[in-house]
Amino acid sequence: MSESTIQIALVLPDLLGTYGDFGNAVVLEKRMTWRGIKAEIVPINYGQPVPDSCDIYVVGGGEDTAQTLAVKHLREHPGLQRAVTKNAVVLGVCAGIQIFGESFTRADNVTHPGMGLIDSTSHAGGSRAIGEVLAEPANGLFEGVLSGFENHQGRTVLGPAARPLAHVKVGTGNDGSVEGAVQGRILCTYLHGPVLPRNPQIADLLIEWATGVKPAPLDLPAVTAMRAERVKAAS
Amino acid sequence: MNDSPARLPLRTAAAVKLGNLSSTLSQKMGLGAGGMIGGRVALKLDPQALGHLTQGRRVAVVTGTNGKTTSTMMLARAVGALGEVATNHSGANMPDGHVTALSKQPDAPYAVLECDEAYFPAVAGASNPSVAVILNLSRDQLDRVGEVRTIERSLRDAVDKLQNCTIIANCDDVMVTSAAWNASNVVWVATGTGWHHDSASCPRCGNPIRWQGEHWHCTGCDLSRPHPSWITADEAMITPEHRQLELRLTLPGKFNQANAVMAAAAAHAMGVPADEAVRRLRGVSNVSGRYRTIQRGGRSARLLLSKNPAGWSETLTVVKEANHPAVLVINAQEADGRDLSWLWDVPFERLQGRTVIASGERATDLAVRLTYAEVQHTIVPDPLKAIDQMPQGAVEVIANYTAFRDLNARAAADE
C-alpha cells in the first residue's frame, strides 16, 4: 500500500459494531477522499492479528460478552498498543472508553483489566444512561457542541493524565458531569449516533491529527441541518 | 380435547366482557383500532386473563425480530384447516393485544399469537403453548428492547421451562439455535436467511463462531448448526419426508419464503399436512398493509415495512431488481427506538444511481447517511408528498414502524 494512503483500521466490527459505529470509519474515509486525501478502511475481524501500521484506529461499542472477548483479543494481539506508541490516532466509542482504561468493573462486580491506554477506570453505574446528550467542548479542543446518543451502564473516572473531551449539559456521559477522554492522540466518548456523522468537527480533528494538516472546510448541508435538529431536540 | 376452550372463571369472564366493551367504544369513538385497549382493561381487572383465556385451546406463539406478523398470519391461515383460530394479526403483539384477540373469539379452539420478543417469557409462561416459533434474532431498538444477547438469554430460559411444547427454530440463526438448543422437542428449519453481524461470538461461551458455507459451529463449546428437518430451497421447501413443495407465494422476497417454511413447519406440528399448509398460506398477500400498492396520480407505490438493519438489508434486496425510484421513511418514536445509529448498519450504498427521497420525521438523519453512502437524494419529510414528487410509474416506499403505520393509515383514509 502506498505511503500516502491513510489507513483507517476498523477494529473488531464483528464484536464492537452493535451501535452503527462502523459509520465513524465511513465518515473519516469520505471526508478525506472528498478532499483529495487518499484513505481506506481496513476491517480487522475477531481472530485476525491487529496490525500496528494503520494511521487511525476506530473502536466501537459492543455487548458485555463481546467487549470482554474484544479486550482479550486486543491484549493478545497488541498491534493497537504498538501503534499508539508510534503516534497513531485512536477513536474509542462506549466500550472503547472502558477497554482503553486501566480496568473496568461490571455490574457483577468482576473487574477486568483494560488496555492501559488512557488514565481511567470504569465501573457499572446504578442505572443505564439512555438518551440524547449535549456537551460543551473542554479545553478548547474543538468548536461547537458535542451531540450524540448514549446507551450505557458504565461510569468512567479519569485520572490526571487523561483530560475530559467535553462538559455535559444534557445527559450523563462519564459521570453526569464530564464526557469522554482525550490522552495524546486517543479520543474517547460514550456517544453513539454515530458520533462522527453527528460531529464533523471531531472527525476533522482526527483527520488533522492523522495528516498533520488542518483539512479544508467541507460544507454538507444535510449534516448542518441534522446537527441543528438534534441540538434543538436535546435542549 | 380441542372441541371448545375451557369455561372462564367468573372474574376473567367479567374482565373479558368489559374489555370487549372498551374495544368497541374505542373503535366507535375513533380513538384507535381497538387492538389493545380491550386487553389492557381486561388485564387490569384480571392479571391472569391470558392464562385463563388460553386454557383448553391449542396455542402457537410466534416470536423473533423480523417477520413475526407475516409468519403469524401465514400460520393462522394454515391452522384454519383444523378449525377456528383466534389471532392478533394487527401487530398488537404484547399481552394486552393477545387478551383482546382471545376475548373476541372465546370459542376458537386454536390460537396463534404474535409475540414481541421481550414479552415471550411472560406470554409463553402464561399460555402453555403447544408450539413456539422462533424466527430470528438480530439488533433492533437497542434502547428499548436491549441487546440481542440479553433477549437470547431470556428466550433460552423461557424455552427451557416450557413443557409439552414443540419449538420451531431457525437453525441458520446462531442466536435462535442457542435459545432452542436445550429444548426437549425442537424442529429445526433451514431458512437460508440470517443476519450474521450479531453472532461473531458464541452466545453461550463467547468463543468465535466459525462459518463454512451454510454450516457453522462454535470453536469453544458444542453449539453448532443442527441438522434441519425442513429446508427452504429456491421458491420451494423440502419437507422432513424429503418431498419438494413449490411455495409460489404472493409475497415477495427470500425473507418471506423463510417465513412461509417456518409457518408450514409450525402448522405441521399443530397437525396440518404440509401440502395443505402451503396451499393455505400461499394466499397471504397484504399483511396489515405491508406490500400493498397504493395509486397516486399515475404512481403505483408499493409500501414496504422495515424496522431494523436485518429487515432493511432484506428489503433492499427485494427492491434491487427493478430500478424503481425509492422513498425512504424514517421515524424515531419510542416504538421505533429513539436511537438512529442503526441507519449506519444498513447498506444504503446499494441505492446509488437511483432516484431517492429521504422522508419521515427524521429525514435529515437519513439524508446524512445517504450523503455519506453517496446516494443522490432530496428531502421531503411528508411521505405522501414525497411519493407525489416521484416520476409517474412504479415507486418503492420503505418505512420503519411508526412511519409505516401512519403512512398506511393516511393512504387508507385517502382511498
From TrEMBL, chain A:
Residue positions of the active site: 94 (nucleophile), 192
Catalysed reaction equations from the record: L-glutamine + H2O = L-glutamate + NH4(+); beta-D-GlcNAc-(1->4)-Mur2Ac(oyl-L-Ala-gamma-D-Glu-L-Lys-D-Ala-D-Ala)-di-trans,octa-cis-undecaprenyl diphosphate + L-glutamine + ATP + H2O = beta-D-GlcNAc-(1->4)-Mur2Ac(oyl-L-Ala-D-isoglutaminyl-L-Lys-D-Ala-D-Ala)-di-trans,octa-cis-undecaprenyl diphosphate + L-glutamate + ADP + phosphate + H(+)
SUPFAM superfamilies linked to this entry: Class I glutamine amidotransferase-like
EC number of this enzyme: 6.3.5.13, 3.5.1.2
Designated name of the protein: Lipid II isoglutaminyl synthase (glutamine-hydrolyzing) subunit GatD
Family to which this protein belongs: Belongs to the CobB/CobQ family. GatD subfamily.
Pathway the protein contributes to: Cell wall biogenesis; peptidoglycan biosynthesis
Domain CobB/CobQ-like glutamine amidotransferase, first and last residues per copy: 7-199
Keyword tRNA-binding found: no
UniProtKB/TrEMBL annotation, chain B:
Signal peptide region: none
UniProt xrefs under Pfam families: Mur_ligase_M (PF08245), MurT_C (PF08353)
Positions of the catalytic residues: 339
One Gene Ontology MF term: carbon-nitrogen ligase activity on lipid II
Keywords: ATP-binding, Cell shape, Cell wall biogenesis/degradation, Ligase, Metal-binding, Nucleotide-binding, Peptidoglycan synthesis, Zinc
Reactions performed catalytically: beta-D-GlcNAc-(1->4)-Mur2Ac(oyl-L-Ala-gamma-D-Glu-L-Lys-D-Ala-D-Ala)-di-trans,octa-cis-undecaprenyl diphosphate + ATP = beta-D-GlcNAc-(1->4)-Mur2Ac(oyl-L-Ala-gamma-D-O-P-Glu-L-Lys-D-Ala-D-Ala)-di-trans,octa-cis-undecaprenyl diphosphate + ADP; beta-D-GlcNAc-(1->4)-Mur2Ac(oyl-L-Ala-gamma-D-Glu-L-Lys-D-Ala-D-Ala)-di-trans,octa-cis-undecaprenyl diphosphate + L-glutamine + ATP + H2O = beta-D-GlcNAc-(1->4)-Mur2Ac(oyl-L-Ala-D-isoglutaminyl-L-Lys-D-Ala-D-Ala)-di-trans,octa-cis-undecaprenyl diphosphate + L-glutamate + ADP + phosphate + H(+); beta-D-GlcNAc-(1->4)-Mur2Ac(oyl-L-Ala-gamma-D-O-P-Glu-L-Lys-D-Ala-D-Ala)-di-trans,octa-cis-undecaprenyl diphosphate + NH4(+) = beta-D-GlcNAc-(1->4)-Mur2Ac(oyl-L-Ala-D-isoglutaminyl-L-Lys-D-Ala-D-Ala)-di-trans,octa-cis-undecaprenyl diphosphate + phosphate + H(+)
EC class: ligase
Pathway(s) it belongs to: Cell wall biogenesis; peptidoglycan biosynthesis
GO biological process, one term: peptidoglycan biosynthetic process
Domain Mur ligase central: from-to ranges: 62-267
Record EC number: 6.3.5.13
Domain Lipid II isoglutaminyl synthase (glutamine-hydrolyzing) subunit MurT C-terminal stretches: 305-404
Binding site for Zn(2+): 202, 205, 218, 221
HAMAP family: Lipid_II_synth_MurT
Assembly and interaction partners: Forms a heterodimer with GatD.
Role description: The lipid II isoglutaminyl synthase complex catalyzes the formation of alpha-D-isoglutamine in the cell wall lipid II stem peptide. The MurT subunit catalyzes the ATP-dependent amidation of D-glutamate residue of lipid II, converting it to an isoglutamine residue.
Family classification: Belongs to the MurCDEF family. MurT subfamily.
Listed name of the protein: Lipid II isoglutaminyl synthase (glutamine-hydrolyzing) subunit MurT
